[in-house]
Inverse folding.
């Protein structure tokens, strides 16, 4: 059976995962329609790309990251999730990994796709229109799952609140490092230097006193854990926020989109 001439794929969201999905669609020879509020995402904290993207990043790693553990796995889980028995990736944090610069990659993607983004907020009503009034060969959403849920009162979106603050880069420091802190005497649980940014992360219920005095520079969010939402079963959810699941990365989302696109051949 031959390859289809061209399929149309709707991409919902224009953050790193959404635009990387649009790039994957383009590289597969198909057409993407990107629908999202046309706002470039701010990337805080310890984020990097776990592998190369052909034509977009160098083939070889742009750097290596030293992961460091302090304290215990139980102490780390207690800080992050408020539950010392919660499973984390602690066993993977004590080694060196190759990395690619996600901020640089997203800058390239934004310059490629910014003016193709249809500027529209995605909510359940818009989702209905996209799914029922327009023909797309595939719909991929990277929008947070709770934002498109038709019955939020019936569905659970479990997660934990966090706060990240960008810090001044240590003078003369060029190495990339991520420190995971399970020590009981400190409130913070992650400190990093990645992509030329230094940042520190806290559970939001244990912020430094200065924050309570309205000191700026903090980004607040929720760490996804799991959900019970089954809305829009024909739409492919890609990315940590759309899947609302722990352990999903931008690179694993790119790999997922690549696999999905094989359905169009």
């Amino acid at each position: 059976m031959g390859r289809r001439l061209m399929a149309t794929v709707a991409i919902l969201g224009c953050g790193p995962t959404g635009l990387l999905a649009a790039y994957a669609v383009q590289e597969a020879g198909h057409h993407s329609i990107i629908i999202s509020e046309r706002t470039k995402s701010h990337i805080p904290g310890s984020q990097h790309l776990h592998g190369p993207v052909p034509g977009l990043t160098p083939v070889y790693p742009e750097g290596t990251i030293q992961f460091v553990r302090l304290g215990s796995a139980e102490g780390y889980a207690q800080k992050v999730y408020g539950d010392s028995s919660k499973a984390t990736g602690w066993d993977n944090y004590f080694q060196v990994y190759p990395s690619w610069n996600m901020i640089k990659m997203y800058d390239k993607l934004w310059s490629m796709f910014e003016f193709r983004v249809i500027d529209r907020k995605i909510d359940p009503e818009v989702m209905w229109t996209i799914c029922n009034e327009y023909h797309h060969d595939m719909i991929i959403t990277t929008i947070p799952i709770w934002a498109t849920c038709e019955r939020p009162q019936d569905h659970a979106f479990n997660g934990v609140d966090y706060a990240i603050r960008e810090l001044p880069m240590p003078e003369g420091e060029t190495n990339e490092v991520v420190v995971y802190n399970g020590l009981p005497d400190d409130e913070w649980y992650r400190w990093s230097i990645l992509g030329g940014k230094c940042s520190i992360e806290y559970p939001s219920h244990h912020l430094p006193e200065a924050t309570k005095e309205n000191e700026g520079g903090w980004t607040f969010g929720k760490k996804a854990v799991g959900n019970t939402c089954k809305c829009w079963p024909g739409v492919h959810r890609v990315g940590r926020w759309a899947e609302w699941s722990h352990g999903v990365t931008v690179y694993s989302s790119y790999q997922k989109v690549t696999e999905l696109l094989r359905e169009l051949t």
User: Anything to note?
Assistant: The CA atoms of residues 181 and 209 lie 19 Å apart.
